[in-house]
Specification:
three-stranded antiparallel sheet; globular; about 20% helix; alpha+beta; single chain; 10 strands; 2 helices
């Protein structure tokens, strides 16, 4: 995994502001973290621990790498975009961890 992905996802999960290359993690006054790639918001980690992701319309290897770096799921593209091996439109989904698997549901972030 790329160093920029490791640095950005660590800041994102810890809800700390960080700017690394083309990726920015921004935390609002309520403690909600957003990850931006080239200015597009691709992930939200709310103050209460909810996690939302999207490709923001950009199914690129960099987008998939940043999202997969969060570590609770895997975003791939072998012919078609997939999230944990299931077809995915790239639209906002909420990731719900239910050990040992993670599930996802189409849902907009509340912030």
């Amino acid at each position: 995994m790329r160093k920029v992905t490791l640095d950005a996802t660590e800041a994102f999960l810890q809800r700390k502001n960080k700017k690394t290359s083309n990726t920015v993690v921004s935390v609002d006054k309520d403690g909600n973290a957003s990850m931006f790639l080239f200015g597009n918001r691709i992930a939200v980690h709310t103050h209460d621990g909810r996690l939302f992701i999207t490709t923001a319309g950009w199914n690129t290897s960099t987008t998939r790498n940043r999202l997969s770096g969060i570590g609770r799921f895997r975003v791939t593209s072998r012919g078609a975009l997939a999230l944990n091996g299931q077809p995915w439109s790239g639209r906002w989904v909420e990731i719900v961890q239910a050990d040992p698997i993670s599930m996802h549901f189409e849902n907009e972030p509340p912030v």
